């Protein structure tokens, strides 16, 4: 955490480490369950009033999605993550994400202040430092999936996409339907098919998003599930923004599944480019990967 005094940083990460190891649990829930958010913090996306008696239209849902996408410009969070289907422990992480494409994810060893992994990404490349292995990788984004599928594959670009949504074109083709659980599903497809198709599931009773899926050629590329939406501090305004605190990301083709709990979040803070800079330490070799993952 650049700019934070060492003593405070050490204490903060000790607390997060205890939580990550399961010693205590705050503002979170096991996968598949829902935590009751205190009434004072409960929120709905702008334009999705839960008290409205009229049914919501595709135009209203698209506008609410785009309003949220436009309102959130950066994310700074102290969080914890774990891999799914591997019975892994929680790992404390520091999350940085900023439009248009910058992201950084720093994982720490539980019960300590030592870095487990440090990774950054932009629109083209990723960088990954593994201190315990003495390795530093750099390569195109698609080569990331060829690394050993462990915590280093909790990728910053996927956290970026899950928290900083891309705005959808108002001219896109949209279709609205109700699924078997009563939630509203909005499907958005660019008319020129230049971007993956997007399906968004809205919880009409709470005015938030439950799930989003990206698809290419009718195949699911990524599914992101959201819970625990809370009114969240924005550095640029006194108004608080509705933001999820519990996120699950799954990318089937890459065998990537992870869970992310955001414990403390600040939105729209100024993040200089230096916060996303990651260079190999002196004496650590640089391993360059091509798009196939070959060295």
Task: Summarize the structure in words.
The radius of gyration is 19 Å and the shape is globular. It contains three helices and 14 strands. It has a 14-stranded mixed β-sheet with strand order 7-8-9-10-11-12-13-1-2-3-4-5-6-14. With 295 residues, the chain is mainly beta. Strand 1 and strand 2 (91-98) form a beta hairpin. The protein starts with 5 loop residues before the first helix and ends in a 7-residue tail after the last strand. The chain has helices at residues 6-20, 58-71, 156-163, and strands at residues 74-83, 91-98, 102-108, 115-121, 125-130, 135-140, 173-178, 184-189, 197-203, 208-216, 219-234, 237-251, 256-267, 286-288. It has a single domain (6-288), classed as outer membrane lipoprotein receptor (LolB), chain A.
For the structure shown, list the relevant keywords.
295 residues; mainly beta; outer membrane lipoprotein receptor (LolB), chain A; 3 helices; globular; disordered N terminus
Record the SSE blueprint.
Elements: H1 6-20, H2 58-71, E1 74-83, E2 91-98, E3 102-108, E4 115-121, E5 125-130, E6 135-140, H3 156-163, E7 173-178, E8 184-189, E9 197-203, E10 208-216, E11 219-234, E12 237-251, E13 256-267, E14 286-288
Parallel strand pairs: 6-14
Antiparallel strand pairs: 1-2, 1-13, 2-3, 3-4, 4-5, 5-6, 7-8, 8-9, 9-10, 10-11, 11-12, 12-13
